[in-house]
Amino acid sequence: MGGGSGSRRRGLSLDELERLAKVARDKIRDAAPPEKRNVFLSFVYEDLNDVNLLRGQAKNQNNNLDFNDWSVREPFDSKDAEYIKRGIRERIRQSSMVLVYMSGHTAASRWVDWEIREALTLGKGVVGVYKGEQPPTSLPAVVSEKGIKLLPWKIARLAKALEGGKG
Predict the structure, then answer these.
(1) What is the reported pLDDT for 113?
(2) Per-domain boundaries in the chain
(3) Which residue ranges of the chain lie beneath pLDDT 70?
(4) What is the pLDDT of residue 165?
(5) ∠48-141-152 over CA atoms, to 5°?
(6) Of 140, 153, 134, the residue nearest 55 (C-alpha)
(7) What is the pLDDT of residue 78?
(8) How high is the pLDDT of residue 166?
(9) What confidence score (pLDDT) does residue 167 get?
(10) Is the CATH number 3.40.50.10140 carried by domain 35-164?
């Protein structure tokens, strides 16, 4: 009584359905906003004001710099270096990449050098960022040893580096 009976198959073939489903998935993916990167910010305490400015710019909706900050917000309450390293290592592990703020103070920090080395050991992309026209003259040894890419603090370039994940 109600249509649908009969042995003739109507409609699209399985290959055609799969092709259309792929086209639909691709269009949905392309229309979706890009996924935010989980970024660990490595820096020395003396540069906290500049790093907070960078964090603020990442939250500003009038630019395309957009990331989730997975950095350590409060120093670990310990003098046990191994305990501190475990905590930082876990934050780096949870991140998709590490952004290192480079200044005249950075080269003196054994922690920044360790964080960069640890990120590379964990297979994370690492990008250095600096204010001004030229990077600081003194940088952590690992930067030249491992060829860490350095970028000027320009929102479009940082956004592109974060988007790619490896600088």
Answers:
(1) 94
(2) 35-164
(3) 1-10, 29-36, 61-66, 68, 70, 72-78, 165-167
(4) 53
(5) 50
(6) 153
(7) 60
(8) 46
(9) 42
(10) yes
Strand blocks (E) in the chain: 37-42, 67-69, 97-102, 125-130, 149-152
List Cα–Cα distances, 41 to 3, 15, 44, 50, 120, in angstroms: 64, 47, 10, 12, 14
For the residues of 109-141, what is the DSSP string, one character each? -HHHHHHHHHHHHTT-EEEEEESSSS--SS--H
Considering only CA atoms, which of 117, 112, 91 is closest in space to residue 102? 112
How would you label 130-141 residue by residue, b for 16+ Cβ within 10 Å and e otherwise?
A: bbeeebbeebbe
- How many residues does this entry show for the chain? 167
Crossing angle of helices 81-94/110-121, nearest 10°? 50
Q: How far apart are CA 89 and CA 73, in angstroms?
A: 14
Amino acid at 52: N
Say if CB 70 and CB 94 are below 8 A apart. yes
Structure tokens at 126: 């690492």
Structure tokens given for 159: 């956004």
Give dist(CA 116, CA 160) in Å, integer: 20
* The predicted structure's pLDDT at residue 102: 96
